[in-house]
Amino acid sequence: MDYRLLNRLKSPAYKGLTATLTEEQEKKEGERIESVHAKTGGSQTGLGMLSSFLFGLIGALIFFLLYFVYTYFSSYETTDDAFIAGHIIRISPKVAGHVVGYYIDDNMDVKKGQLLIEIDPRDYQSRVALAQANRDLAETEWKRMKEILRSSAVSQLQVDAAWAIKLSTEAYLRLNELQLGYTRIYAPEDGRITMRTVEKGQYVEVGQTLFDIVPPELWVVANYKETQITYMRPGQPVTIRIDAYPHRRYKGHIDSIQRGSGAQFSLLPPENATGNYVKVVQRVPVKILFDEPLNKEEIVGPGFSVVPTVEVRKFRLDVFWSLALLLIGFGAGLLVGLIRKLKKKEQ
Q1: Range(s) of the domain holding residue 165
Q2: What sequence ranges are listed for the domain CusB-like beta-barrel (predicted)?
């Protein structure tokens, strides 16, 4: 064993040198730790700023999206309590008789002035002939009385009576001619035959409904809740979806709004002054017209279910996209600036 080396290590000088080296190492290690801590802390600070920015941007986007949804849906009012309406013309004869001419069929399209039904005219032709004979006789008698009046063989009163008889026979002739014309029934409007109940050879009475004609002019009656018509006005645009053709959309506009709820004009209006009262939201009929005629190939008529959507406020989609792009651009610019700032700190 080397006692000299052992004594040197135990000497005070060597111990002082060792202590000095240890202090320098600790100092360097502390500086290194502080440097690492500074870098790590800066990075964590940058990540915190980036996270805060992203959370803020996401919150702004969510708020903007909710505002868009609210604005969009508050700009439209829709209902499924709506139906197609139209004119329904009841065709009935003005004279009675047997049907001898039958020129219609179920669901047949007809034109205005087209002959549809012919009633046996022979009885009415006989009445016209009789009325013509009476008219001719009365006219002859009146002329004879006028000639005799010159010789004072008859009085002026008798001549006036003959004139009155002549006028009455002429009126009776015109009446019978009208009834003869009523034996031929023509289409009053363009339309389609529906609900036919007459057959050839059938005896029909005056006023009996033979069939209906539905003209092509149709509109929509939508029963909106009274809380939905606050901002509705005539002329506002409407998008119409017919249940029979769900993939098509039809354009229309509000024509008028009924002044009063539908229940008020029903057969038995509600009497709220008696019994227990329960508040019920009333429905108000709104008349909607189509902007363009419907396609003739599409089978649409009164009673069809529709879903109209009224644009009660003008929704500016271009403004929405402009604001969205502005927000995205502003957020992207802030994000790029923040990233550059973090890179400079790291360097």
Answers
A1: 89-213
A2: 218-257
